[in-house]
């Protein structure tokens, strides 16, 4: 049992990260990737947390985030159990979400949550902190609010892509699509604000522009940003292009006006416009935002971005469960 005086390390919001934390995660992820390249390195990783158990509570549909967290647990030897549908738990009998998650905390050392309910991860973290058996919570996506672990893997992908080009500092990042409800955009923008002289361009239909709280945050931090309903005119200046889909799972039937989204698609001819060293990203899943023919272009990083998610989450779990201090790069 953990001492209640010990402060639990939850991962709830991009707001809690600073520049040193981002740099340490990137460095740790690099080490873990190197360890993974050999059998001895894999055995070393698998023994780090083989005494720990995790619950993946994913009651919102997910492919990449679920599989990357599940794979991260396997890499570290963490035994994992899962809830993918609340109707298969006692919630169907009327049990509250809070009681269900407190029950799960009795059996595991870590809860990784993806939920359509805004603020639920924070609520559960506070609840468990006040119990005799607190366990850390990792927010793997909370309604339209936050997706902090996606933002971490996005930062890692950008840092790795720009490693020979001065890093993230001073870069122009073009973010495109449903910026109002896209939680990946909200979290990533907050992290990009920690870098020097970064400029963000937010391109979207008027109804999908960034939220007031994000706009206020960037203004208070003195971050250079621009909002536009145009798309193609900003491609030439972008060092990174971050495409997103319409988050229509949050639409209320009959209330959402149809929006023409075709002007915000990265078509094949756009490759002649963007910089030779630009980075094209997408948190996935995609629809028609990126022409599949672009996949073979060396500037397309979204498939690599996806795999980076697994390694970044391995690094994050070691930090949350205190194993990061034990990681060394042995002679392999």
Element layout with pairings:
Layout: H1 19-35, H2 39-46, E1 53-58, H3 64-75, E2 79-83, H4 97-105, E3 110-115, H5 120-129, E4 137-142, H6 148-161, E5 172-176, H7 183-192, E6 199-203, H8 212-220, E7 224-228, E8 240-243, E9 279-281, H9 302-320
Parallel strand pairs: 1-2, 1-3, 3-4, 5-6, 5-8, 6-7, 8-9
Helix pairs in contact: 1-6, 1-9, 3-9, 4-5, 6-7, 6-9
In short:
This protein is of the alpha/beta class and 332 residues long.
Top keywords for this entry?
332 residues, alpha/beta, Rossmann fold, 2 domains, five-stranded parallel sheet, 9 helices
Written account of the structure:
The chain is α/β, with parallel strands linked by helices and 332 residues long. It folds into 2 domains: 14-147 and 309-325, Rossmann fold, CATH 3.40.50.1370; 148-307, Rossmann fold (3-Layer(aba) Sandwich). The chain has helices at 19-35, 39-46, 64-75, 97-105, 120-129, 148-161, 183-192, 212-220, 302-320; strands at residues 53-58, 79-83, 110-115, 137-142, 172-176, 199-203, 224-228, 240-243, 279-281. The strands form 2 sheets. A 5-stranded parallel sheet has the order 7-6-5-8-9, covered by helices on one side. A 4-stranded parallel sheet has the order 2-1-3-4, sandwiched between helices. Strand 5, helix 7 and strand 6 form a beta-alpha-beta unit. 40% of the residues are buried.
| CATH fold field value of the largest domain | Rossmann fold
Strand order, sheet with most strands? 7-6-5-8-9
**Helices and strands, in N-to-C order?**
HHEHEHEHEHEHEHEEEH
The percent range for strand residues is: 5-15%
Q: Describe the biggest sheet?
A: 5 strands, parallel
Q: Please name the CATH architecture of the largest domain.
A: 3-Layer(aba) Sandwich
From the N-terminal CA to the C-terminal CA, the straight-line distance is 36 Å
Q: What percentage of residues falls in helices of 4 or more residues?
A: 25-40%
* Total of DSSP H or I helical runs spanning 4+ residues: 9
Sequence stretches where pLDDT stays below 50 over 5 or more residues = 1-6, 250-254
User: How would you name the CATH homologous superfamily of the largest domain?
Assistant: Aspartate/ornithine carbamoyltransferase
Quote the average pLDDT. Answer: 89
**Shape, per Cα inertia axes:** globular
* Number of structural units classed as domains: 2
What's the Cα radius of gyration?
20 Å
Q: Given the helix and strand composition, which structural class is it?
A: alpha/beta
